[in-house]
Amino acid sequence: MTYLANQQSEYRVITDFPENVQIGSNTVIMGNLAFKRFHSRKKQGLIIGDHCTMDGVHFDIGEKGQVEIGDYCYFTNAVLLCELEVRIGSYVVIGWNTTLADTDFHPIAPAERIADAIACSPLGKTLPRPEIVKRPVVIEDGVWIGPNATILKGVHIGAGAIVEPGAMVNRDVPPRTRVMGNPAQIIGEV
């Protein structure tokens, strides 16, 4: 297992990632911000399989969040935002500036959004935040996700699907289909 951090254009090996991170053999993690926002308290907050490359990936994982990634995956400069669960299969490629999020991180309804803003402000220290919806994101084996795509909460992407660059995916993608656009629409089969 190898964890690399970029420091002044040279990579150096670092082995001080969080204890609840499990990294498979021949897996490489590059970038000095990978675990800056990693707060998972799960026994296995992050599991990455064998022969993966995580180049500049940000693992922004909340206290109750868990991310599981299969074998032979390549992600570059992706952001994984997880408060509940993100599961990614094997042989998955994720292009740069792609974001996966299993929650909106704030309520959607206007009144709840105002209550949340007050609870998060210095004036609302004792006020509870409204419940925020969280739904797992699941990406099956052999999926390719192009640069600048966004995968939202509750989305299940079927095996062998292709998400075109810049797509905003807010609903399930059937296996072996291509989607593009905002919101993403099926444009063909693979």
Automatic annotation (TrEMBL):
PROSITE patterns: HEXAPEP_TRANSFERASES. Keywords: Acyltransferase, Repeat, Transferase. InterPro entries: Hexapep (IPR001451), Hexapep_transf_CS (IPR018357), Hexapeptide_acetyltransf (IPR051159), Trimer_LpxA-like_sf (IPR011004). It comes from the Bacteria. The keyword Transferase applies. One of its GO terms (molecular function) is acyltransferase activity. Pfam families: Hexapep (PF00132). Belongs to the transferase hexapeptide repeat family. This is Acyltransferase. It comes from Brasilonema bromeliae SPC951. The lineage of its organism: Bacteria, Bacillati, Cyanobacteriota, Cyanophyceae, Nostocales.
